[in-house]
Amino acid sequence: MTHRSRIRSIAAATRAAHRPVRGRLVTPLVLCFAGLVTLGCETVNTVEREDPLAAPVVVEDKRITTDVSLQMAASVIGVIEGETEAGFPKVQAELYNWTSERKRVHYRFDWIDVDGFVIDSPLASWQAIALAGKERDYIISVAPTKSAVDFRLKLLEPER
Fold first, then answer.
1. 154 Cβ partners below 8 Å, 6+ apart?
2. Does residue 35 register a pLDDT over 60?
3. Model-level pTM greater than 0.85?
4. SS3 at position 155
5. CA separation for the pair 34, 107 (Å, rounded)
6. Residues near 124 by Cβ (< 8 Å), separated by ≥ 6?
7. What confidence tens digit (pLDDT) does each residue in 87-128 have?
8. Is 69 left (phi over 0), alpha (psi -120 to 50) or beta?
9. Computed over its alpha carbons, how large is the radius of gyration of the chain?
10. Opening angle at CA 49, ends 44 and 52, nearest 5
11. CA–CA separation, 117 vs 111, rounded Å?
12. In a 3-state reduction of DSSP, which class is residue 26?
């Protein structure tokens, strides 16, 4: 095949790629745009008060990270604590998905008594949460007894 015939062959293939298919023009640009739109569907936009009125009690926490991909899917931004009207301790953790994809994670709160023992409770089971890309969400737990003085939050990626 000569150089000139190769150029004609490439030009013909390019023209064929830009022909209408069932009434629609399919080009690499259109496919690229569709891909960007699909990626955009995995994130979430939010609106909140510029100067929040809430005055939460922030928990100074210690973090042990053993799974970096889990940390990207559900990073703990902060933890606050308080009490219910009935006097039970409660905590709220703020999670953030740093990726652009929807991620599902499991979490569990263990409540601990003054002696350092985990308080056995049927409520201490794994729960699931799904976070859209770049989404911030909250998980809340209320202690099973008023004798709980501490908690431990565990995060786990679901098995694939």
1. 107, 108, 109, 110
2. no
3. no
4. strand
5. 34
6. 108, 109, 110, 111, 118, 144
7. 999 999 999 999 999 999 999 999 999 999 999 988 789 999
8. alpha
9. 26
10. 120
11. 8
12. coil
Mean pLDDT across the stretch 51-79?
92
Which letter, b or e, does each residue of 130-153 get, where b requires 16 or more Cβ atoms within 10 Å of its Cβ?
ebbbbbeeebebbbbeeebebbeb
Nearest to 79 by CA among 129, 152, 148: 152
pLDDT confidence bin for 1, thresholds 50/70/90: low
- Maximum CA pair distance of the chain? 87
Tell me the CA distances in angstroms from 148 to 71, 120, 127, 140, 155, one per residue in order.
27, 11, 20, 15, 20
- Residue 132 pLDDT exceeds 90: yes
**What residues form DSSP beta bridges with 43?**
133
Answer for the pair 121, 111: CB distance below 8 angstroms, yes or no.
yes
